[in-house]
Design a protein that fits this description.
Blueprint lengths: L1 H15 L14 H8 L4 E4 L5 E6 L11 E7 L5 E8 L2 H4 L2
Antiparallel strand pairs: 1-2, 2-3, 3-4
Protein name: DUF3862 domain-containing protein
């Protein structure tokens, strides 16, 4: 039940931020395409309903200067991206 609530909250958050950055085009794409583009995720959370939350931290040495980027994707049980969010202020976020 806890994971269902987390999943629901995440989906509302993703829906409200769908235009943040340039990652919304990933919605509907396959997980394998995402991994091919970005590599192995930095973290992931598998939910009880089979969905996963995958995150990439695209921060670099400029993070010290305040430049950072976090890319978060919701992946459904059929390995399709059902939501995407970019958060940050660096070039790594705006150019994805």
């Amino acid at each position: 039940m806890k994971n269902v609530v987390i999943s629901s909250i995440f989906m509302i958050f993703v829906a409200s931020c769908a235009s943040n950055g340039n990652v919304s085009h990933w919605q509907g794409e396959s997980l394998s395409s995402l991994i091919e583009q970005y590599g192995t995720p930095d973290s992931f959370l598998k939910l009880e309903d089979g969905n996963r939350i995958i995150e990439y931290d695209k921060s670099n040495a400029l993070h010290v200067a305040g430049h950072f980027c976090s890319l978060t994707f919701m992946v459904d049980s059929s390995n399709r991206i059902s939501g995407a969010k970019a958060f940050g202020n660096g070039n790594n976020c705006s150019n994805q």
